[in-house]
Write a structure and sequence with these properties.
Layout (H helix, E strand, L loop, with lengths): L3 E6 L5 H10 L7 E6 L12 H6 L1 H6 L10 H4 L5 E6 L1 E2 L2 E2 L1 H7 L11 E7 L5 H13 L3 E8 L5 H14 L15 H6 L2 H11 L6 H7 L7 H22 L10 H16 L2 H14 L1 H12 L9
Parallel strand pairs: 1-2, 1-3, 3-6, 6-7
Antiparallel strand pairs: 4-5
The protein binds flavin mononucleotide.
The site of flavin mononucleotide has 20 residues, from helix 1 and strand 4.
Length: 308
């Protein structure tokens, strides 16, 4: 029997859809593949204004669910051998459409079903994946794999290009800066995972899938990221609460605090970043062994509450 696979995803610019298309490109002839898209009732703007972009932070971090359109009944009633779940982090948490979906009754589609998560992001995804793991555990999904694609340019370069992309809508290279987002060659190379997934499905051996995916480079993770995310998430939680005290999304009463957050974040990234990298390196040297254990944990699928 041909395995039946559902590719369920949200993608604002289409980048994640491109990654998912590449992932299944070599197995289309051997498996029955269906797509379903998560769609917010009110679409997010693209390109964003700076105020709209940073105003999305508080509710993303607080996991306030936005309404999303229902999944078609044919999809909800389908029995899938595997659901490939594509999502992206926003402000170190699952994007708002992803959280919105995971809070609906439609998330029951994951119940007792093997799930492979696919993340396409700039380069900070650990905390978001922990949250997705916890949602999936709540609906009794069986997480069987995780593939992560990031922009592998240096951190400051990827920040500049993501700013150009988000606020001008320009993904293409310009001046000294390369194209934004996940590199095209990495998107194309994602097809190598398709046959690994197919083989494990056909052999009914999904419990061994993540080991095989990891040995093909499905998750690249440096210990420094653990430290950066620990710091980032603490600050985001503080600012999320502080901004939400003044009102909900788009409320002019909170615009001052949103802009304060934006300015501080940019200062932290562009001016304090070298100092912060130096202290992170120090911490890395002191806590190397425990951070290496963290790296092992984050590459795997197990969920332990409060790891980040
Ligand atoms: C509001 C917003 C916040 C983002 N925050 C993060 C983040 O915390 N970490 C990260 O690696 N990428 C972040 N990104 C980049 C996205 O994860 C993603 O790669 C990009 O939006 C393209 O995805 P898509 O077009 O498939 O939706 C953010 C993007 C947006 C729009």
């Amino acid at each position: 029997m041909r395995p039946r696979i559902l590719v369920l995803y949200y993608s604002q610019t289409g980048q994640l859809r491109q990654i998912l298309d590449s992932l299944v490109s070599d197995i289309k002839g051997k498996a029955d593949i269906e797509y379903a898209q998560i769609e917010p009732v009110t679409a997010f703007p693209f390109p964003w204004t700076a105020l709209e972009f940073f105003d999305a932070m508080p509710e993303t971090v607080a996991h306030v669910p936005i309404p999303v359109k229902p999944l078609p009944a044919t999809v909800m009633n389908g029995k899938y051998d595997l659901i490939i779940f594509g999502y992206q982090p926003w402000f170190l948490n699952p994007s708002q459409p992803t959280t919105g979906f995971l809070n609906t009754e439609f998330a029951q589609i994951f119940k007792d079903t093997p799930v492979l998560t696919v993340v396409g992001c700039r380069n900070m995804w650990l905390h978001a994946q922990e949250k997705v793991k916890s949602y999936l555990a709540k609906v009794n999904a069986q997480l069987v794999g995780n593939i992560v694609l990031t922009d592998t340019n240096p951190n400051l370069v990827s920040l500049l290009t993501v700013i150009r992309w988000s606020f001008k809508g320009q993904k293409e290279a310009s001046g000294m800066l390369p194209a934004a987002g996940v590199q095209q060659r990495d998107i194309e190379a994602t097809s190598r995972f398709g046959n690994i997934i197919y083989k494990h499905l056909a052999e009914d051996n999904l419990f061994d899938l993540q080991r095989a995916l990891l040995s093909s480079g499905a998750v690249q993770l440096r210990p420094g990221l653990v430290i950066l995310e620990q710091r980032g998430i603490k600050n985001f939680r503080f600012w999320s609460k502080f901004i939400r005290e003044k009102g909900g999304p788009g409320d002019p009463a909170r615009a001052g605090r949103v802009l304060m957050f934006k300015n501080l974040l940019l200062v932290a990234i562009f001016i304090l970043s070298p100092i912060s990298t130096a202290t992170a390196l120090l911490k890395l040297a002191i806590k190397r062994n425990s951070l290496l254990k963290d790296v092992d944990y984050f590459k795997q699928l197990e969920y332990q509450e409060g790891r980040l």
